[in-house]
Design a protein that fits this description.
Elements (H helix, E strand, L loop, with lengths): L2 E3 L9 H5 L10 E3 L7 H14 L1 H10 L7 H11 L2 H4 L7 E5 L2 E5 L9 H19 L3 E6 L3 H10 L5 E8 L5 H8 L6 E7 L2 H13 L1 H6 L2 E2 L6 H18 L11 E6 L4 H11 L4 E8 L4 H8 L1 E3 L22 H8 L4 H15 L1 E3 L5 H7 L3 E5 L2 H15 L5 H11 L8 E5 L7 H8 L20 E4 L2 H11 L4
Parallel strand pairs: 4-14, 5-6, 5-8, 6-7, 7-15, 9-10, 9-14, 10-13
Antiparallel strand pairs: 1-2, 3-4, 11-12
The structure holds pyridoxal-5'-phosphate.
Amino acid sequence: MNYISTRGTPERLHFCDILLEGLAPDGGLYLPEFYPQVDEPTLNRWRQVYHQQGYAELAFEVLSLYIDDIPASDLRALCAKTYTAEVFGTGEIVPLRHLENNIWLEALSNGPTLAFKDMGMQLLGNLFEYELARRGETLNILGATSGDTGSAAEYAMRGKKGIRVFMTSPAGRMSAFQQAQMFSLMDDNIFNISIAGVFDDCQDMVKAVSRDLDFKRRYKIGTVNSINWARLLAQVVYYFAGYFQATEPLDSNQAKQVSFAIPSGNFGNACAGHVARMMGLPIAKLVVATNENDVLDEFFKTGVYRVRSSADTHETSSPSMDISKASNFERFIFDLLGRDGEQVKRLFADTLQQKGSFDLSMSSAFDDIRLRYGFESGKSTHSNRLDTIQDSFERHAMMIDPHTADGIKVAREHLQNGVPMIVLETALPLKFSQTIVQATGKEPDRLPKFEGLENMPRRVTAMAADVQAIKTFIAEHCCEV
Ligand SMILES: *Cc1c(COP(=O)(O)O)cnc(C)c1O
């Protein structure tokens, strides 16, 4: 399988060439040259694979269609090492549970950091370690986080040979649980850096370091952001696993199609659903759910993609969806526009830069969004999420987190008769207990392994929002150069 950029540069690369990369050199995102097609016999075989051999083996089947530069036995071992009941809590890895009527919840958040980012990031950690060892290289991962991404990255990379993680976060701005989760890590290769500032200050520091190409090369600086193709690819697998579970048993009169509702921010999760659908998984609708930061909902309803300023980006009770632009969105637009890289480049590099928006409402592609690609959308407000959390608790005795609540609220507006609707559960309530208490008056349940987490010893360095300071810190603590 070859990979191409969404902005039309003719270069063709293999999986391991892009594994450790972010953007393509032309500013685009990487996508496979085509989507391998999964026909019905294969789908039936994969169903057996999932039920009889497990999620890791299903992951191997999906991944091996996209990865031809890692020997099959190694890839299979990497999947088996990643998707274990020990790490993800159950043998199903992504168990489905029934909510009401035709609505199901697919649990993607039983990994180490209790959010769905573990699904992609845990595999990435093992792939990075494997590929770096094969090349005899090391990597220093520099990142900025306001919560879920940073902790998922740290838990994926902890203890990995040849990798160090330098994770900046805005001092005092993450939830108590999120801080405790990150700062209690004692692994030698993990460095928490608490910045006196807001998230944008952290992000700016990371960008400034990455722009210093000499420094970047010398200290082998890399990232693990949400545009990484390997992360996205790993997420394709649970769409298949969700489908198999919702259409069981096979020989009943049940629907042969399912829909998904996806709490969305940077569009990584939804884009993985798009890839699964393009491969031939029978998905009726992909319902994109946003919070008050409704860049995506606006696009899917009107055809206008308008990025927001930071002043226009709201802090909400589903903070992992508080985005000003959706960094994976360009991938879908590339497919929508018939993979015309020149046109994508004009839209993202020119029109968006100059005007802050582009408009496809008059394009013939606009109808394709719904009719051909199955995308629909909706949004929730804080009070919608509180109502949904309270309602699920009172009627179903189920505690759900605010991101999943957004998905359920929007899912209910897009139900079709006879088509199971699978809402992706992207985090556990424990991570966002303040909102849960506000909605239900009760603290969320705490797994025994998280007892007393907030009182554990902490390993964190406080720093001013100063680019030179972080460069010095990296130089002192990085993998040997
Ligand atoms: C990251 C995240 C999202 C948004 O996912 P995208 O792939 O960025 O669209 C939703 N919910 C939770 C809990 C997250 O951590």
